[in-house]
Amino acid sequence: MKPAPVYVFPLLVALYYPFCTAKVQPTVPPSEAPLAGLWQQPGDLSRRDLLYGPWGSERAPDPHATYTFRERKQQGTNPGVTVEDTDGREWHVKQPPSRR
To answer: Residue 20 CB: number of other CB atoms within 10 A?
Structure first.
């Protein structure tokens, strides 16, 4: 009896594998999904702090402080680093993706 070519086993696995996965079903039918709840027009835009956000300038990072490098971020989409300020607060600094 002649042995099967080396590509037969990977071919069988590739053909069988799709039948092993569970069927994914939506939890809410599309017709009942509340699409209007995804976004709301902000009514008080003139009273919002668009520079420092809801916590204000007292909780924002000090641009003149010295930060201590802790670690390079290994997770997420954009690269970045974790640093600590002089008050012991941890900050996650994001960087733009590298161009290749």
So the answer is: 6
Query: Which helix (H) or strand (E) element contains residue 11?
Result: helix 8-16
How many angstroms separate the Cα of 100 from the Cα of each of 77, 87, 97?
Answer: 15, 37, 9
Cβ contacts of residue 85 below 8 Å, gap of 6+? 61, 62, 65, 67, 68, 91
Q: How far is CA 11 from CA 19, 22, 55, 74, 90, in A?
A: 14, 21, 57, 35, 50
| 8-state DSSP, 86 | T
CB atoms within 10 A of CB 79: 14
pLDDT in tens, 54-96: 888 888 888 899 999 999 987 777 789 999 999 999 999 988 7
| Residue burial 43-58, b: 16+ Cβ < 10 Å; e: rest | eeeeeeeeeeeeeeee
